[in-house]
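Q&A log
Question type: sequence-to-structure
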Amino acid sequence: MKLYTRTGDEGKTSVIGGRLDKDHIRVEAYGTTDELNSFVGLAVTKLDQPLFIDILGELEKIQHELFDCGGDLALISTKYPYKATEEMVTFLEERIDAYIVEAPELEKFILPGGSEAAAIVHVCRTVTRRAERLVVQLQKIDETNPIVLKYLNRLSDYFFAIARVINHRYGVKDVEYERSALVFRDKKGKEEEK
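Response status: OK
Response body:
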């Protein structure tokens, strides 16, 4: 099998059910999801095995799910079913809730960084947000699986949560944005201040 096909030499690419221009918003959306998957793979290489065995397993699961999301975004035919599901979103919510408890309490905005692994996870978070914006644009002009947008929205929160946990487990403090007001207080705490 040859790696190159020459079929894209005129600026078109194959999607599931047809062909599109390579700069079509649908191609941008699934291409950015693929880019994100690559950054997740990079993050995996920076995490120590015993300390992050739970997160490593989750990131591998997420890589498969990002492939599913990319497939859904590349789908322009109604002949095939969508792969991204509500259960994928629920799993992320459960993990976010667990990691919020593990990380130190947060009151201010933080700068991306700390450890190298956390910094790469913050890159994953921002690429996720870009993919999400592209999916929003796509949904304005064409149909796609609505769960993908929901998944990406939750995934960026997951990356924020694990970046903080990674720093915490490594014993590295998050760097607070020095001009940040207190922004992450719960409603109960706000009521007590009044």
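Response note: The CA atoms of residues 188 and 194 lie 10 Å apart.
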